Amino acid sequence: MHSTTTFNAATFTSALSAITAAARRHLVGLGAWYQARRDYRLLCRMEECALRDLGLNSSDLRDATAVGIFGDPTSLIASRAAERSGRRNR
Predict the structure, then answer these.
(1) Structurally, how many domains does the chain consist of?
(2) Structural domain of residue 15, as residue ranges?
(3) What is the 3-state secondary structure (H, E, C) of 24-89?
(4) Is 55 left (phi over 0), alpha (psi -120 to 50) or beta?
(5) Of 1, 5, 40, 57, which sits with the fewest C-beta atoms within 10 Å of its C-beta?
């Protein structure tokens, strides 16, 4: 018996589209991760008085390292600033 494989252009195009979409999602995610890390490094270079103006302190920056290498430290930092801002506005 001899089996032959036929080329199905529609299936190939569909698979290629799925691969392209997945690659695009990963690249967008990688870009967001890089931006969050860059923002975190910028905050780490700020003096304590500048951090206070933002509703933060240096311990918030240390705590943000708990998110791990692929986490977003800025989300934790933003929530801390929002918590303090809410307390000030009451």
Answers:
(1) 1
(2) 9-88
(3) HHHHHHHHHHHHHHHHHHHHHCCCHHHHHHCCCCHHHHHHHHHHCCCCCHHHHHHHHHHHHHHHHC
(4) left
(5) 1
Residue 68, token pair as written in the block: 């791990």
Q: Give domain status of residue 19, yes or no.
A: yes
Distances (CA, A) of 17 to 7, 20, 21, 30: 17, 5, 6, 20
- Report the pLDDT averaged over residues 42-63: 92
The answer on pLDDT for 48 being more than 90 is yes
